[in-house]
Write a structure and sequence with these properties.
By secondary structure, the chain is an alpha+beta fold. It has 7 helices and 11 strands. The chain is about 35% helix and about 20% strand. It has a 6-stranded antiparallel sheet with strand order 6-7-11-8-9-10.
Length: about 260
Amino acid sequence: MSFSPKSPGALEPHRSWRAPFVFLVVIAVIVGALVWLSPTIANQVRMDEGRLYIGAECSVETSDGTSNLSRDQAKLATTAVALAARGAQTPDISGIDSAVIQRLAEGSPDDVGPGLRCEGTAADDVPEQELTPTGLTPRAQHVREEMAAVFGDLPLGGFAPGGVSQGHGAESTHYSGRGIDVFFRPVTEENRCEGWILAQWLIAHADDLDIQYVIFDDKIWSAHSPRGHWQTYDAPEPAKDILRHRDHVHVDVLRGGPR
């Protein structure tokens, strides 16, 4: 009896169903994962100025890891910390991890430096403004008023009625009435902690207040940085405390008008 092996084509009817079946299983798994994750994905994907952003708008590094926050949560948390520091009534923050609040209020066990990151989304449609009698533009004056509402009376500088024309670098926003300095002197751990409470409140509210830069304690935050991380601030020589912004928080607002 002779034996004739089957030709390759003879095997195809038995195997042809496998590839479509595997493909359908993979598609089903992907669709199921998307359905399950869709609320999370929807909350993490945003469009701004034609750019796609994936991830939380703000986050805080705690001893337990990274806690993601919406912009509203970051504003609520930083405001509560600021009010608590001056013994004022605080808003309800029961929905925010207590480790986040502790990090914002006290810093990390190793340092009182920044724990909050918030993405910058500098608006490009704000009008250019002139000085008001205070020596600040209306936008900068609004920042001053909002700080006072939360932090009370603060020792301020960097502006004067009629404007300032010296005492700062050549490109300083103080000369156009867009910059404010908030002093925390002398340089102590307690004053550094208070300065960081203000600095983090400012970046959480940066979108509302059209804030462009916040500088404090050798660090700088920029609204033009889409990830919103604090970067090292390179102070000009001689790098004394005031030039390193170790004894004051600098905040300025967008110029506005054509870029």
